Amino acid sequence: MIFRYKRSFVMSFRKTRRDVLQSLGVAGGVLTLGPHAVTASPAEDRWVCDTDADDMSASDLQNSEHIEITEDLHDEIGYCIVECTEEHLPADCDVDFSEEKFEEYYGEADFDKENLDTLREKAENDESLPYVPDVDLKLSGPEVAHESGLNASNTVEDDLYDLQWDKKGQRIGHVHDTSTGDGARVGIIDSGVLGANPNRSVTHPDLPNVREDLSENFGTGGPIPGPVDGVDHGTHVAGIAAAAENGTGVVGVAPDAEVVDLRVFPGASTSNIAAAIVHGATPEDEGGAGCDAVNLSLGLGPLPVCSFIGLLILIFYYPLYEAAGQYALDNDCLPVTSAGNSSTNHADPTAGGFCAPPLDFEIFGESGFFSLPASVDEFLTVSATGPIGYGWSDGGNGNGKGKNKSKEVGDTGFEIEQPIQTEQKPEEPAFFTDYGGDDEVNVSAAGGNADLDLQETDTNWFYDLVFNTTFEFVPAEDEEDEDEFAPSYGWKAGTSMAAPQVTGLAALLAAQDPDASADEIRDAIEATTSEPPVGKSGSTTAPSTYPDILGRAEGTNLATDGESDGDQPSNPGSNPETESVDTYRGSGHVDMKKAVKSFGDED
Question: What is the average pLDDT value for the chain, to the nearest integer?
Answer without folding.
Answer: 78
